[in-house]
Amino acid sequence: AAFLSGLSLQYRRAGDLEGSIRVGHESLALYRVAEAERDEASLEGNLAMTYLDIGNASKARTHLRRAQVIAQRLSDALLVAELTEAEARIALAENDLEGATQRAEAALAAADAGGSYMVAVRAHRTLARIARARDDRQQAEAAYQRALDLLRMHRASGQLRDALAEWGEARAGWGDAAGANELYAEALGRRGT
Is residue 49 a contact partner of residue 89, using CB atoms and an 8 Å limit? Predict the structure, then answer.
């Protein structure tokens, strides 16, 4: 089950979302039989994000709800934080900017109370996307900066490149070619941090 769960995540990272879902469901069945609830909830959360990636917010919410029920029952602070951040992304995809903001801020609080720094990074990036949707460049820039500060502090170079590229795309969208190029250069390792 763990192998299939990991494979599902690797498929998702590689962009094979259908493969990720297929293998994820196979793993989910095995976790249920084994009564491995924490693993089941984590995989339900991953499946929720995969369904969100293919544009199916309804299926994403269904998987997320299942995961949240288990996480609450287990009182797992890390899992609750991760799922709260995932809920913010789903709300954003549904254009519920207020709900997305509330969930992202709750995810930050949950990350402080026992979640990982990556939950906080994702929550800051979600807040940046929300600010972009509101056409609030100042808030978006500040949120991206907080995410990058955490990634640099923890030396998470792979995630740092992704965040820099996303921020660069945002700057390019605002017509700030020089600012975008600066971030792209750092993402490519052509500028010191």
Answer: yes
Tokens 């900017």, located at residue: 97
Question: One digit per residue, pLDDT tens: the chain, 193 residues?
Answer: 888 888 898 999 899 999 999 999 999 899 999 999 999 999 999 999 999 999 999 999 999 999 999 999 999 989 999 999 999 999 999 999 999 999 999 999 999 887 799 999 999 999 999 999 999 999 999 999 999 999 999 999 989 999 999 999 999 999 999 999 999 999 998 865 4
Q: What is the pTM of this model?
A: 0.90
